Amino acid sequence: MIGDRAYSGEKNIQFADEHDFLLISRLLPITANGSHNLGDKWHYNKDACMMVCPHGVMAYRKAKQNCGNQSKVMTYYMDTNICRTCPLREGCYRPGAKSKTYSVIIRPPEHSSQLKLEETEYFQQRVKKRYMIEQKNSELKNKHGLARSWSNNLAGVRLQGIITIFEANIRRLVKLINEKNGKKD
Question: Where are the beta strands (DSSP E) in 25-99?
Fold first, then answer.
Protein backbone atom coordinates (compact mmCIF):
# COMPACT_ATOMS: atom_id res chain seq x y z
CA MET A 1 0.00 0.00 0.00
CA ILE A 2 1.39 3.39 -0.98
CA GLY A 3 0.53 6.50 1.01
CA ASP A 4 1.92 9.90 1.85
CA ARG A 5 3.55 10.79 5.17
CA ALA A 6 0.20 11.20 6.90
CA TYR A 7 -0.23 7.39 6.76
CA SER A 8 3.04 6.52 8.51
CA GLY A 9 1.58 6.61 12.01
CA GLU A 10 2.31 3.89 14.53
CA LYS A 11 -1.18 2.34 14.31
CA ASN A 12 -1.08 2.15 10.49
CA ILE A 13 2.34 0.45 10.58
CA GLN A 14 1.04 -2.03 13.18
CA PHE A 15 -2.04 -2.72 11.00
CA ALA A 16 0.17 -3.34 7.95
CA ASP A 17 2.35 -5.75 9.95
CA GLU A 18 -0.66 -7.60 11.35
CA HIS A 19 -2.21 -8.02 7.89
CA ASP A 20 1.10 -8.92 6.21
CA PHE A 21 1.52 -6.10 3.70
CA LEU A 22 4.08 -3.36 3.27
CA LEU A 23 3.21 0.25 3.93
CA ILE A 24 5.12 2.41 1.45
CA SER A 25 4.92 5.67 3.35
CA ARG A 26 7.80 7.83 4.50
CA LEU A 27 7.94 8.76 8.17
CA LEU A 28 7.45 12.38 9.12
CA PRO A 29 10.84 14.11 9.42
CA ILE A 30 10.29 14.86 13.11
CA THR A 31 9.58 11.17 13.74
CA ALA A 32 12.52 9.96 11.69
CA ASN A 33 15.12 12.49 12.81
CA GLY A 34 13.80 13.82 16.11
CA SER A 35 13.59 17.49 16.94
CA HIS A 36 16.95 18.86 17.94
CA ASN A 37 16.89 22.62 17.79
CA LEU A 38 20.64 22.79 18.42
CA GLY A 39 21.57 20.09 15.95
CA ASP A 40 24.05 17.45 17.03
CA LYS A 41 25.85 19.69 19.56
CA TRP A 42 24.11 17.88 22.41
CA HIS A 43 25.32 14.36 23.15
CA TYR A 44 24.22 11.43 25.29
CA ASN A 45 26.36 10.23 28.18
CA LYS A 46 25.61 6.51 28.33
CA ASP A 47 27.26 6.01 31.73
CA ALA A 48 25.05 8.62 33.43
CA CYS A 49 22.08 8.04 31.07
CA MET A 50 21.78 11.81 30.65
CA MET A 51 22.14 14.40 27.90
CA VAL A 52 25.09 16.79 27.96
CA CYS A 53 24.77 20.33 26.57
CA PRO A 54 27.26 21.86 24.07
CA HIS A 55 29.10 23.54 26.98
CA GLY A 56 29.60 20.16 28.70
CA VAL A 57 27.02 20.50 31.48
CA MET A 58 25.01 17.37 32.23
CA ALA A 59 21.26 17.38 32.84
CA TYR A 60 20.32 16.83 36.47
CA ARG A 61 16.96 15.11 35.88
CA LYS A 62 14.98 13.35 33.17
CA ALA A 63 11.34 12.42 32.70
CA LYS A 64 9.39 10.44 30.12
CA GLN A 65 6.43 12.38 28.76
CA ASN A 66 3.58 11.75 26.34
CA CYS A 67 2.98 14.15 23.47
CA GLY A 68 -0.48 14.80 22.08
CA ASN A 69 -0.10 12.46 19.09
CA GLN A 70 0.79 9.36 21.17
CA SER A 71 4.54 9.74 20.68
CA LYS A 72 6.72 9.77 23.76
CA VAL A 73 9.66 12.02 24.54
CA MET A 74 12.40 11.90 27.13
CA THR A 75 12.83 15.39 28.56
CA TYR A 76 16.13 16.32 30.18
CA TYR A 77 16.20 19.22 32.67
CA MET A 78 19.17 21.59 32.92
CA ASP A 79 20.26 23.83 35.79
CA THR A 80 19.21 27.37 34.79
CA ASN A 81 21.74 28.91 37.18
CA ILE A 82 24.50 27.46 34.99
CA CYS A 83 22.66 28.37 31.77
CA ARG A 84 22.43 32.06 32.79
CA THR A 85 26.21 32.43 32.84
CA CYS A 86 27.03 30.03 30.00
CA PRO A 87 29.05 31.55 27.13
CA LEU A 88 26.97 29.46 24.67
CA ARG A 89 23.58 30.63 26.02
CA GLU A 90 22.76 32.64 22.85
CA GLY A 91 20.09 30.66 20.99
CA CYS A 92 19.97 28.06 23.76
CA TYR A 93 18.79 29.80 26.91
CA ARG A 94 16.08 32.45 26.93
CA PRO A 95 16.88 35.17 29.51
CA GLY A 96 14.50 35.02 32.45
CA ALA A 97 13.35 31.46 31.72
CA LYS A 98 12.58 29.44 34.84
CA SER A 99 13.58 26.15 33.26
CA LYS A 100 15.71 24.79 30.44
CA THR A 101 14.81 21.43 28.93
CA TYR A 102 15.98 19.31 26.04
CA SER A 103 13.64 16.66 24.63
CA VAL A 104 14.40 13.59 22.55
CA ILE A 105 11.70 11.55 20.80
CA ILE A 106 11.48 7.93 21.92
CA ARG A 107 10.95 6.01 18.70
CA PRO A 108 8.65 2.98 18.96
CA PRO A 109 9.79 -0.31 17.35
CA GLU A 110 7.30 0.20 14.48
CA HIS A 111 9.00 3.42 13.42
CA SER A 112 12.44 1.82 13.67
CA SER A 113 11.33 -1.00 11.36
CA GLN A 114 9.75 1.54 8.97
CA LEU A 115 13.07 3.44 8.83
CA LYS A 116 14.84 0.21 7.86
CA LEU A 117 12.20 -0.43 5.19
CA GLU A 118 12.71 3.11 3.81
CA GLU A 119 16.36 2.28 3.14
CA THR A 120 15.57 -0.72 0.91
CA GLU A 121 15.74 -0.55 -2.88
CA TYR A 122 12.15 -1.90 -3.15
CA PHE A 123 10.82 0.97 -1.03
CA GLN A 124 12.78 3.55 -3.05
CA GLN A 125 11.36 2.24 -6.34
CA ARG A 126 7.77 2.05 -5.08
CA VAL A 127 7.74 5.49 -3.45
CA LYS A 128 8.72 7.03 -6.80
CA LYS A 129 5.30 5.98 -8.13
CA ARG A 130 3.50 8.10 -5.53
CA TYR A 131 3.36 11.12 -7.83
CA MET A 132 1.15 9.19 -10.30
CA ILE A 133 -1.41 8.59 -7.56
CA GLU A 134 -1.35 12.27 -6.63
CA GLN A 135 -1.83 13.26 -10.29
CA LYS A 136 -4.94 11.08 -10.54
CA ASN A 137 -6.27 12.43 -7.22
CA SER A 138 -5.70 15.98 -8.46
CA GLU A 139 -7.52 15.22 -11.73
CA LEU A 140 -10.49 13.73 -9.87
CA LYS A 141 -10.70 16.71 -7.53
CA ASN A 142 -10.06 19.55 -9.98
CA LYS A 143 -11.40 18.34 -13.33
CA HIS A 144 -14.20 16.06 -12.18
CA GLY A 145 -15.54 17.89 -9.12
CA LEU A 146 -14.51 15.53 -6.34
CA ALA A 147 -13.12 18.44 -4.31
CA ARG A 148 -16.57 19.33 -3.01
CA SER A 149 -19.13 16.87 -1.71
CA TRP A 150 -22.67 16.72 -3.06
CA SER A 151 -23.96 15.20 0.14
CA ASN A 152 -23.56 15.51 3.87
CA ASN A 153 -23.60 11.78 4.65
CA LEU A 154 -21.11 9.00 4.07
CA ALA A 155 -23.29 7.03 1.63
CA GLY A 156 -23.67 10.12 -0.58
CA VAL A 157 -19.94 10.85 -0.54
CA ARG A 158 -19.19 7.20 -1.38
CA LEU A 159 -21.67 7.32 -4.31
CA GLN A 160 -20.11 10.57 -5.55
CA GLY A 161 -16.66 8.94 -5.46
CA ILE A 162 -17.87 5.92 -7.43
CA ILE A 163 -19.61 8.07 -10.07
CA THR A 164 -16.63 10.41 -10.39
CA ILE A 165 -14.13 7.57 -10.84
CA PHE A 166 -16.48 5.89 -13.34
CA GLU A 167 -16.73 9.16 -15.31
CA ALA A 168 -12.94 9.63 -15.32
CA ASN A 169 -12.43 6.06 -16.55
CA ILE A 170 -15.05 6.42 -19.32
CA ARG A 171 -13.38 9.65 -20.51
CA ARG A 172 -10.00 7.88 -20.52
CA LEU A 173 -11.45 4.94 -22.50
CA VAL A 174 -13.00 7.28 -25.08
CA LYS A 175 -9.69 9.12 -25.43
CA LEU A 176 -7.74 5.85 -25.90
CA ILE A 177 -10.26 4.56 -28.48
CA ASN A 178 -10.04 7.84 -30.41
CA GLU A 179 -6.24 7.71 -30.36
CA LYS A 180 -6.31 4.11 -31.63
CA ASN A 181 -8.66 5.07 -34.49
CA GLY A 182 -6.60 8.14 -35.33
CA LYS A 183 -9.24 10.66 -34.36
CA LYS A 184 -8.53 13.87 -32.50
CA ASP A 185 -10.62 15.07 -29.52
Answer: 43-45, 50-52, 61-66, 72-78
